[in-house]
Amino acid sequence: MKTASFTPLEWSHSTNIYEVNLRQYTIEGSFSAFSKELPRLRDMGVEVLWFMPITPIAIEKRLGTLGSYYACLDYTATNPEYGTIDDFKTLVNDAHLQGFKVIIDWVANHTGCGHVWTKTHPDYFRKNARGEFYDKNGWEDVIDLDFDNPAMRHDLIEAMRFWVRECDIDGFRCDMAMLVPLDFWKDARTILDQDKKLFWLAECEDAHYHEAFDATYTWEWMHKTEEFVKHKTDMHGLESLLWKYSHHFAPTAIRAFFTTNHDENSWNGTEFEKYGDAAKTLAVFSATWNGIPLVYSGQELPNLKRLKFFDKDPIDWNGRYELHDFYKTLLTLHKTHPALRAGDLQVTTHRVRTTNDKEIFAFIRKHDQGEVLVLLNLSAHQKHSFTIHDKFVRGAFKEVFDGSIQDFTHDHNSCLPAWGYKVYARNTY
Questions:
Q1: Mean pLDDT (whole number) for 69-79
Q2: Which residue from 71, 147, 149, 163 has the highest number of Cβ atoms inside 10 Å of its Cβ?
Q3: What is the pTM of this model?
Q4: Which residues pair with residue 367 across a beta bridge?
Q5: What is the DSSP letter of 319?
Q6: What integer is the mean pLDDT of 251-257?
Q7: CA dihedral angle for residue 125, residue 130, residue 136, residue 142, rounded to 10 degrees
Q8: What percent of the chain has pLDDT over 90?
Q9: What is the mean pLDDT of residues 5-28?
């Protein structure tokens, strides 16, 4: 596998991402209303705020009452429902002052029907045999851009540059990145790097796209774990996929792990519909395996409903944030412990063997400055006792959730409840 052409920003190896569904986050659904949530999210350990598309939504062929966030009308304007460009600038500045990075969703493959370019530059779009704008995937509210047109490529990159220069954003999450030619992304990053070094996240699982991007998605893992919970695959199925990830991607590739996001929640069900009691266990995995965790709006509540995609449907916040401390523990550990750095050649990840590897998934991640040991009971069996049989596990560790100490040099016995988890950490510096 070819190594990445660009060097990720140092902070990206230990970061995490929080996806902001601005429309549904508050009753107001605005930049200013969301800004009030920043202190809480910072306390929870959030590092990167990813805003779903903030551009205006096309009216032509609009779906639902408010339309899809991903049907852009104008690349260099904000959705008036959210506020003005100045409102967004204020939000970004406030976020920066509190220690966040801000990235925005970028939809390059297509625009909404009636995008401003359809009138000013109709040659920027692909056309069917009848000379009509169209989308090759059959999505009814969008139309495809023509990446064979150099002028379109130039203007699209300039539109991205607008948000870097005007609003000082820190990167892009690129929607359906694999539908856009890889050489476009390379050109975009090369050009925008001249203004500011950015963080680049691709919604795709094509290993070649790490030639332009710092991080990519793990859609296949999310689906495979759902199959596992529903008894459609076994532990071997999970291990085979992780083997594929470690061998088909460059060792420096950063992968984003998640249990839900806007698409999954709206179309396939909440994480609890998919995973049941395994939801938190798999969230622990997402925050400790070789990658960076991605958390969706409301998971800290936890949100138990599917959010409508094309209509107003605010999250039912109750002020309790029952999983705030759960995510705070995981996100803080991930961003501070050297053994959890993603895509770092100085970190090794080793599958730990136990007396029941069919149901216990254990692994240890090692850096010369510390280690993190993770024990997961991926079964509904209560009081699951097992013994670790692995020379890689030695020494005293502190469990990050309850603060207990266990010395694995002599005591290799453990017990976990159904879908239980333990995360042990130790530093050697």
A1: 98
A2: 71
A3: 0.97
A4: 370
A5: S
A6: 97
A7: 60
A8: 95
A9: 96
Q: All domains of the chain, ordered by start, with CATH?
A: 10-340 (3.20.20.80), 348-427 (2.60.40.1180)
Q: Is the dihedral of CA 185, 190, 191, 197 positive or negative?
A: positive
With H, G, I as helix, E, B as strand and everything else as coil, classify residue 63: coil
**Closest listed residue to residue 58, CA positions, set 106, 108, 118, 125:** 118
Q: What is the pLDDT of residues 278-302, one digit of tens each?
A: 999 999 999 999 999 999 999 999 9
Encoded amino acid at 165, one letter: R
Amino acid, res. 86: D
Q: How many CB atoms lie within 10 A of CB 166?
A: 14
Tens of pLDDT, residues 376-407? 999 999 877 999 988 889 999 999 999 999 99
Mean pLDDT score, 129-151: 96
Asked if residue 302 has a cis previous peptide bond (ω within 30° of 0), the answer is yes
Taking a C-beta distance cutoff of 8 angstroms, is the pair 211, 4 a contact?
Answer: yes
Structure confidence at residue 4 as a pLDDT band (50, 70, 90): very low
The answer to whether 428 and 371 are in contact (CB under 8 A) is yes
Three-state DSSP class for 352? strand
Cβ neighbourhood burial of 149 (10 Å; 0-12, 13-18, 19+) = middle
The yes-or-no verdict on residue 268 having pLDDT over 70 is yes
**In b/e form, how buried is each residue of 260-282, taking b as 16+ CB within 10 angstroms?**
bbbebbbeeebbbbbbeebbbbb
Confidence (pLDDT) at 342 = 98
Say how many C-beta atoms besides its own lie within 10 A of residue 26's C-beta.
Answer: 17
Contacts of 164 (CB under 8 A, 6+ apart): 192, 195, 196, 198
Residue 318, judged by CB atoms within 10 A of its CB (0-12, 13-18, 19+), counts as exposed
User: Closest Cα to residue 179, out of 211, 221, 209?
Assistant: 209
Across the beta sheet with 421-427, the strand order is 348-352, 360-367, 370-377, 421-427, 396-399, 405-407
* Nearest residue to 57 via CA among 307, 306, 309: 309
Distance CA 327, CA 336 (A): 14
Q: What is the pLDDT of residues 328-378, one digit of tens each?
A: 999 999 999 999 999 999 999 999 999 999 999 999 999 999 999 999 999
Q: What H or E segment, with its residue span, contains residue 153?
A: helix 150-167
- According to DSSP, the β-strands at 384-387 and 396-399 are unpaired
DSSP type of residue 268: I
